Amino acid sequence: MPLGERQGDKSESRYCGVETDFNDDMPHVLAFNLSSGGFDFVIAPLMDPAYRPSLVQKGSAGSGVLPFAGSDLVMSPSQWSSHVVGKISSWIDLDSEDETIRMDSETTLKQEIAWASHLSLQACLLPAPKGTSCGNYARCVNQILQGLSNMQLWLRIPLVKPDDDSADGKNDTLVDSWETWNSFRLLCEHHSLLSVALDILGTLPSANSLGRWFGESVRAAIINTEAFLTNARGYPCLSKRHQRLVTGFFNHSIQIIISGKSVHPQANVAADASQNHSDEGLQRHALRPYLDYVGYLYQKMDPLPEQERFELGYRDFLQSPLQPLMDNLEAQTYETFEKDAMKYIQYQRAVSKALLDRVPDEEAFTKTTVLMVVGAGRGPLVRASLQAAEETGRKLKVFAVEKNPNAVVTLHALVKLEGWEDSVTIVSSDMRHWNAPEKADILVSELLGSFGDNELSPECLDGAQRFLKEDGISIPSSYTSFLQPVTASKLHNDIKAHKDLVHFETAYVVKIHNVARLAPTQPVFTFTHPKLSDKESNQRYKKLQFVIPNDTGSAMVHGFAGYFDATLYKDVHLGIEPSTATPNMFSWFAIFFPLRTPICLSPGSNLDVHFWRCCGPTKVWYEWSVTSPTSSPIHNTNGRSYWVGL
């Protein structure tokens, strides 16, 4: 039974599981935990924990039946696949120095995974690595992964990290568990079917340290009953920090699993009855109060905002950026962008302020301002400009310049429908080649991409600047791109699946969600309009140094998230840079620049990044590289993989 109803949420995090002990009566395990307990699935051992291959082979020459938890026939295939996650025997230790244990572990692991595949389970929970070395364990798991088609393997990782980051050696015994996970997944080459199940303990690392995990492939969070506190009524509850963490898990489609024995008086009232198999109707599951509390945390979350619900299908989905200069946009694309009311409200505000500055009140009825919308599309900026003129009581003459002949058809129909014939002139031409009959007071454009200049706004406006008056106003007047390093395991795996260089040297528009932002954004390239000098090049180069906070611990950089912030006019701005983003705007998602080989950062280390904007006769492209802590290749040399056509 799902944890509750939350408007717009259809993610897997609505379902809560429970970890169980070995029991060869699987139908009872399922009935008790799902029907009586109210859980949605069980993490159940597949094999008798007493089983050791070496002992069986000595006694029966290998002919014994493996002690699995019941035949596949005791439950329907849908029950096995929908409600059971296989728990691999926790005793296995593939890096033991004892050869018998090591060999027994490898044999058992492969037998249990084979059985889980036979049952069509969706996932298996692998025990946490026993020591600091996990080379042989990872090798064996990697072999298994090569033969799997869709069953996930969840590696159990306790959520621990030394708190004291000083070099006094006090925490030598405590290993940052992210390091264990990172070592394991690197050995398995970032395999897409290998994920994490985090063991949540009573104490938590710092917020920065926790944040790393939201960019990793975390499928489940196992909360032990020992991690719960007790409220005034004797019921289990969690600390404020644990509550925030669980809410974060819900928002990232991470499933909660309750583990352990009940340790709360109120929860123990009916615990003894749970051993009585004779009357299931009277049984009360000892862990039900914990499930109820997790359900309470889920239900008190705010509903997903309408914009978030609209964007759900785009989360972490890689899209190639638009090429509006090289390609003509389709009607559906125009329609999507035209629905972004907030963007046009900001444009209208900017035009209103520019008109008031340009035309004093005493000239309002006599002076006509010439405004040119370059890249008019189907007319939303024309409408916003005319509304600004009406709002301020200023007279306006509008030229709507558009190169897409299909959009021009729509523009003509709009002008006729609205009765704008006297104030709007439609020009079917590329702004870079049009000879204007007069110069403009105000030049308005919406040529910005997710990275500001990545849809060639600088090149387009350079071509249009010749018909702007010396003291003319450009809206936008400037824009700046921003970058930050991110952990983005899913994006990396999606790009890796293409198995070529081109996809790792392409920038993608993406609604980034399952990412860890490892450092604050930094500005990269700024463009100002009108340009002060014709000699100023649109080529750019910037070296950035990001400092990863010391309490984050080690982290993996899969690439860089890019944003922009634009000044439309004076104090009217528009942008998606996280700290200053315009609210309720959906025209732009972030841009993602991947790294061919992810880079591992040590605690408190610096990340030196180089970014270039390069211009050729027919195209513009970006190149990027990392030089510290290690050097990466320069990506996209000469725009060999990704470019924007002029």
From TrEMBL:
Residues 478-644 form the PRMT5 oligomerisation domain. Transmembrane segments: none annotated. PROSITE patterns: SAM_MT_PRMT. SUPFAM superfamilies: S-adenosyl-L-methionine-dependent methyltransferases. One of its GO terms (cellular component) is cytosol. Residues 306-475 form the PRMT5 arginine-N-methyltransferase domain. Coiled coil: none annotated. GO terms for molecular function: protein-arginine N-methyltransferase activity. It comes from the Eukaryota. GO terms for biological process: methylation; regulation of DNA-templated transcription. Keywords: Cytoplasm, Methyltransferase, S-adenosyl-L-methionine, Transferase. It holds the Pfam family PRMT5_C. S-adenosyl-L-methionine binds at Y334, K343, Y344, E402, D430, M431. The record marks F337 as: Critical for specifying symmetric addition of methyl groups. It is found in: Cytoplasm. Residues 38-300 form the PRMT5 TIM barrel domain. The active site is at E446 (proton donor/acceptor), E455 (proton donor/acceptor). Belongs to the class I-like SAM-binding methyltransferase superfamily. This is Protein arginine N-methyltransferase. The lineage of its organism: Eukaryota, Viridiplantae, Streptophyta, Embryophyta, Tracheophyta.
